[in-house]
Amino acid sequence: MLLVLAVPARAATFFVIVAGLGGEPDYEQRFTAAANDLDRIFKSANPSAQVATLTGAQATAAQLKARLAAIGGNARPDDDFVLILIGHGSYDGQDYKFNLVGPDMTAAEIGSLCDHIPTRRQLIVDTTSASGGAVSALQRPGRAVIAATKSGTEKNATVFARFWVEAFQDPDADTDKSGSVSAMEAFTYAARKAAAFYESQKRLATEHAVFNDSGRGEPVRDPGAGQGMLLSSFTLLRLDASQQTMNDPAKRALLEKKESLEQKIDTLKYQKAAMDPADYKKQLTEALVELARVQGELEK
Amino acid sequence: MNRALLLLTIALPPAIAASAATPSECWSLRKLGHADQAQSCFEALTRSRQAFERAEGFWGLEQWDQANAQFRLATGQPDSSPMVKVRWGRLLHVRFNDSDAAGLFREALDKDPANAQTYIGLALVSADRFEGKAAFYLAKAAELDPKSAEPHELLADLALENDERATAAVEADKALALSPDAFDAMAIHAALELLADRSPDAWCDKIRAINPGFGEGYARIARQLEMHYRYEDAVTWYRKAVEADPRLWSAHSALGIDLMRLGQEAEPRRELELSYNNGYRDAATVNSLRLLDSYKNFDTIRAGNTILKLDKSEAALLQPYLQSELRLILATYQQKYKMTLPAPVQVEVYPNHEDFAVRTMGMPGLGALGVTFGEVVAMDSPSAHPPGDFNWGSTLWHEMSHVFILTATNHRVPRWFTEGLAVHEEGAHAAEWRDRLTPEVMAAIRDKKLLPVARLDRGFVFPEYPAQVIVSYFQAGSMCDFIAEKWDEPKLLDMVHSYAKLLPTTDVIQQNLSLPPEEFDKQYQSWIGQKYAAESAHFDEWRDKLKALVAASKQKQYDAVLAQGQAVIALYPEYVDHFSAYELMADADQAKGDTASEMSILAAYQHAGGASPDLLKRLASLQQKAGKPSDALATLSRVLYIYPVHDEDLHRRLGDLLLAQNQPDAAIREYRALVASNPVDKAGAEYDLAQAYFKANDKDKAQESVLAALEIAPGYRPAQKLLLQLQQPQANPKP
Description:
The complex is a heterodimer of chains A (300) and B (735).
Chain A: E1 13-19, H1 25-45, E2 50-54, H2 61-74, E3 80-86, E4 89-91, E5 96-98, E6 105-106, H3 107-115, E7 121-126, H4 135-138, E8 143-147, H5 160-167, E9 180-182, H6 183-201, E10 210-212, H7 229-233, E11 235-238, H8 242-245, H9 252-271, H10 277-299
Parallel strand pairs in A: 1-2, 1-3, 3-7, 7-8
Antiparallel strand pairs in A: 4-5, 5-6, 8-10, 9-11
Helix pairs in contact in A: 5-6, 9-10
Chain B: H1 23-31, H2 35-46, H3 51-60, H4 64-75, H5 82-94, H6 98-111, H7 116-128, H8 134-144, H9 150-161, H10 165-178, H11 183-195, H12 201-210, H13 215-227, H14 231-244, H15 249-261, H16 266-277, H17 283-294, E1 298-303, E2 306-311, H18 312-337, E3 345-350, H19 353-361, E4 370-373, E5 376-380, H20 392-408, H21 415-429, H22 439-446, H23 456-461, H24 468-487, H25 490-500, H26 505-513, H27 517-531, H28 533-537, H29 539-554, H30 558-571, H31 581-592, H32 595-607, H33 613-625, H34 629-640, H35 648-660, H36 664-676, H37 682-695, H38 699-712, H39 717-727
Parallel strand pairs in B: 2-3, 3-5
Antiparallel strand pairs in B: 1-2, 4-5
Helix pairs in contact in B: 1-2, 2-3, 3-4, 4-5, 5-6, 5-7, 6-7, 7-8, 8-9, 9-10, 9-11, 10-11, 11-12, 11-13, 13-14, 14-15, 15-16, 16-17, 17-19, 18-20, 18-36, 20-21, 21-24, 25-26, 29-30, 29-31, 30-31, 31-32, 32-33, 33-34, 34-35, 35-36, 35-37, 36-37, 37-38, 37-39, 38-39
């Protein structure tokens, strides 16, 4: 079971969004629109977020290197760093390449540039075709990597990016109703919507999104077995500003009670399989009712 | 066509006839029921110096691989007769390899164009593939070998499959005149008697008198009963076949498949496994066994006089819709057809179209969407098709019409009438479900390819051009529409009763409509011609104008699209498929921000039978924005019949609309469907459901659902508030 970690407010989040080479007007338009949507969403949700977006002629290796180098100079360990790649990718059995205007960049080159960014927590979301071929070169402890395809051999254009963007526009993505969308929630949303897309079109799915956020082992499709902790705690978008008010010292006791109840509920859920169903239901109901009352007090 | 070995007079060059007994003699012994002597005869053949004879010997001993190897050897010899290839082809045909069999027949034909047996081989392959050329090949065989009974037996079989009973009787008689022990001709006569509800005993006695163990004859009868939708009777005769010849594995397999059609599982498995374990492993047997294995993934839900068999992955979602529709259908048809079904009706719904095809035919690749076997209906699930390609509601109404008509006539109804009535019923229930005029149908009307009513069954069973089955459905349905329009609806029920009395179509038309079939055809052709005269005359013009409209739309020339769109629609209003003028105009309206026109054209699209869920949902959104929630509700409810799966948004919107209109019970159904859709936002779905239960005053279920929501998302504030509200002893929903 994954326990969502309580995350203290972070100094800043650095976003770099790249819409790579489309090759055709349709793709060009689609990639640019997705990148611009994300740019707008992250900026409007958090005015202090530092968002750099490269589209069209700007989407070159030189520009990307320059942006990453700049962040490397500005970011602090407590900051978060997010790189989102949209477009086409290729994989030759050895190297993954992200298609840019001019020379492409390999996964190893991108990973190396990100290594120079001092943030302890990083997220790289590669939504391109063949992106599964990039995961092993990008992954490392402290960095979560999401790829739209399970391997480098899934080479068809992907739809993952479309649903990754949608995850920050659809309140349903906030599945735990915490008022924010974590990277895990966005990943789950986009992966499921992409799968449903192929199912509804009666087409063989040519992409299967995966992630690795432990820096070890193979990428996975579902959280568990040591994977998913970092993504679950990596908040990308806050929908509900009221979360901020929870830090009011006057309500500290209530907050502690609330946290204690939440932990109790998590523990109960963890033990559910081993418990008598009636007893589980009784204890869960009591805890949830109590939590609801505490929450009400907090809001007064 | 029956795959059994047929008695052959194998005329071979003297050079290759080397052993004491000939293959013909061995086969003759077997046919006449001298099993031990036949066995010895075939064993002797395997010791022949001639590869061809050894092949026949191994074939007779059912040692298929050796027989195949010996045929290969025999055909490799420089002086090999074309007849060897023909016999090898026949072996491959009975061992389920029609592709190579056809190749061998064609090679033999190149060497000897006057070989009647070659044409018989080609006919067997063609008939199995329902290609429509079998009769031609058999006529050719009869012409080349006028003394052979076999082509006439096969022609009789073919004619009866096509319900041409008089022809079948004539051909069977020709065969018997040429050969007094033409068992298959006797079997055809027996089948003819059974189809006419007379005793087949006289013919069966004749077969039994010569060979009591000739199970093939009973299997042939069973096959004909099956072709005439008399599945229960077919089972009876397949049982007789395996009783007479317990080693007739093809009949064991066919029995198993027929029992599956009747909704059984245990006995079909036994029969199919018996067949499979004894080497009879044709595609139908293997596919059916695989399908039986997959039944563990199905839930069986019994309620009243209905049984639903649904894939576990979508049972919770589909069950309420199917059950409610079934109840409505039963009530409607009971009143309309003035009868009740004698047993519960079973509806099986397959999310994988190929499973449905195997369920139906034993083979994948079936074009149909639903099939009825007595009181059992098998059909595709909406999830088996892309959104917009399939309407489960109209399919269910169609198939259930078959259930009633087959029951009312005791399965004595020709294909054209039961299909026509079923198509007619779809349109009678919902105007947008009526069979639409497709370009293929329009071409058939224009090119005068519609069949006379007396021969319309052929269009279903042996199509002569690719679209003929689709055209035949349309024709049969429109004939019933024509009858209902000109003579009134009850006349159709009178015709059902006439078929129940075993009257042939010619008499049914004459007695009920008081005109000869030829005159009926004339009047129908005139009616349909007039009805679609404009569309047919302007078909090419419509196609050209639609192309221009698509081009204008792609170039964003929206004014041009709007200016010309209505004229394109007027030329062919029923065209609602991809890139229809309705859709292009709606897009143009949207681009110009004219929501009122967009709503209006999408409403016209809906009334014309448009079935794209995306377009219909777009219409519903416009209706909601225009303050017409009832219209939006009606539009979204239509989408439920098209694609209720993989669409959380549809169920949520419907639930919200229903709840807002104070219909909590219906809202509960939608929110339950939302929960069953396994949505991304499970907590939200459970909360919505809890609210609907609360509004319906079902507090226990409301609490259950709100707890489910909070179990997923403990901090979900609206759910917390509802939970606290439910804790109050006097909690009541807001009116």
